[in-house]
Amino acid sequence: MNYESIYFIGIGGIGMSNLARYFLSKGKRVGGYDRTESALTRSLQEEGASIHYQDDTHSIPAAFFDKEKTLVVYTPAVPASHSEFLYFREHGYVVMKRAQLLGEITSTSDAVCVAGTHGKTTVSSMIAHLLRQSHLDCNAFLGGILKNYDSNLLLSDKSKITVVEADEYDRSFHWLKPWIAVITSADPDHLDIYGTEEAYRESFEKFTSLIRPDGHLIMKKGIPLTPRSNQTVKVWSYGESEGDFHAENIRIGNGEIVFDLVTPSEIIRDISPGVPVKINIENGVAAAAATLLCGVTPDEIRGVMHTFRGAGRRFDFHIKTDQIVFIDDYAHHPRELSAAIGSIKALYPDRKVTAVFQPHLYSRTRDFAEEFAKSLSLSDDVILLDIYPAREEPIEGVSSQIIFDKIRAAEKMLCTKQELPDLLRKKEVEVLVTFGAGDIDRLVPEIERVLREKYLSGSK
User: Fold this and answer.
1) Any idea of the CA torsion for 286, 287, 293, 297, to the nearest 10 degrees?
2) Are 106 and 94 spatial neighbours (Cβ–Cβ below 8 Å)?
3) Would you say 52 and 59 are in contact if contact means Cβ atoms under 8 Å apart?
4) In what order do the strands lie in the sheet with 110-115?
5) Which helix (H) or strand (E) holds 181?
6) CB of 120 within 8 A of CB of 184?
7) pTM of the entire structure?
8) 452-441-287-21 Cα dihedral, nearest 10 degrees
9) β-pair type (316-320, 325-329)
10) CB atoms within 10 A of CB 405
11) CA distance readout (Å), 393 to 62, 388, 402
12) Cβ proximity of 219 and 181 under 8 Å
């Protein structure tokens, strides 16, 4: 990369921001546009990036107008009508998708790529943490803020291994060249892009064909995919209780989970995931499998796994007391919601679980309304917010109501974002969890403040 300046359209996205951080670390001039200010954009500005929030070419700093020295990077979530995007296209700049750039950066490394409809952020974060604390170390481009390092980017001078969250949206993961590929799930999603469930799954099968001939494919047992990898690629299965890699002798209690990891060659005793929710047994098995194939030792896995603090917005505990529990989670697909609510109910079997859900995208709401309702009905109480539209225009007849009408939880209600804090002041809750991939996370500080004032008398 001989460019002096890198300009990002959509710089505040979790995947874009780690690339921005990467180029800042290389001493490049970094700038960009995002629709709204956020904690991510503020931290990038503190690190040296120039960011603005109006789609206006006049807001672009002069240093980025040299087309010979500036690379423009965009996310597929940016509409084709975006004026800055159009300007750079029409004036002959090199304009590159985020996924293509990530593929180029990681193409010369030993890439460990984690794909899946859900689970990929936690598994890739676990892998990165296990490698980072082992004798191998790693680089990592993650889809969440890894709490152990307060970053979504890890860099190493001594390691050739790079951990990558492989995003299936817009077929982005087809730009990658995995040494080790992990597939956690392939439940249909993004049907606004793919059209059919078959096309979605075919995209994952194409991803398996990109694995290096000397590589490995680790797939959750039972995923309905037919790998297209080279015959020399070693294929492994994993699961909570079955597969080449799986857990046995699972012990859950006193806020902890401990299990023994069964591998094709040995049993590693007494592994404890640092975030003790049931779904992290399966996630931990996948992460351990990948890192063992990298060369991490069993003792390193046992010693490091329990120090994993999780990724931001993945079972993110904000309050954890006998009086009140508050968790924030990114789940935005029915299978994710089912797994998350099931894990929370297992952790707190005798307490009322209240789920606040903000649906993400009109098209996803339309395509999976019945499945969303079934998943949310696993909780005791549901508070349903309006749809977060993201990149979409409204679809006639599609609102949160079509999910709400099918929910069978003991209690349920519709609510706006603005009304939620006041509602929680009046409502009795025991375990509260906020779900969604939109902007519900921006309410988290206020919700936490309300709950602390109500149940903990303002204690910290």
Assistant:
1) -130
2) no
3) yes
4) 151-154, 139-146, 161-165, 110-115, 180-183, 216-220, 234-238
5) strand 180-183
6) yes
7) 0.89
8) -120
9) antiparallel
10) 10
11) 33, 10, 17
12) no
The full length of the chain comes to 460
Domains, in order of start, for the chain? 5-99 (3.40.50.720), 107-305 (3.40.1190.10), 316-455 (3.90.190.20)
pLDDT value of residue 460: 45
> Which amino acid is it at 408?
R
For 266, the token pair is 């040995």
Q: Looking up tokens 């490049």, which residue turns up?
A: 28
Tokens of 178: 């995995």
Q: How many CA atoms lie within 13 A of 442 on its CB side?
A: 10
| Sequential DSSP letters for 403-437 | HHTT--SSEEEE--TTTHHHHHHHS--SEEEEE-S
Neighbouring residues of 115: CB distance < 8 A, sequence distance ≥ 6: 166, 167, 168, 173, 181, 182, 183, 184, 204, 207
In the block, tokens 């204690």 appear at 459
- Find out whether 298 and 250 touch, Cβ atoms under 8 Å: no
pLDDT per 10-residue tile (average), the chain, 460 residues: 93 95 97 94 97 97 97 90 96 96 96 96 97 98 96 97 94 96 92 89 97 98 96 98 98 89 98 93 98 98 97 92 95 94 91 97 96 98 96 94 98 97 97 96 96 81
Residue 392 DSSP one-character state? P
Tell me the three-class secondary structure of 88-112, residue by residue: HHHCCCEEEEHHHHHHHHHCCCEEE
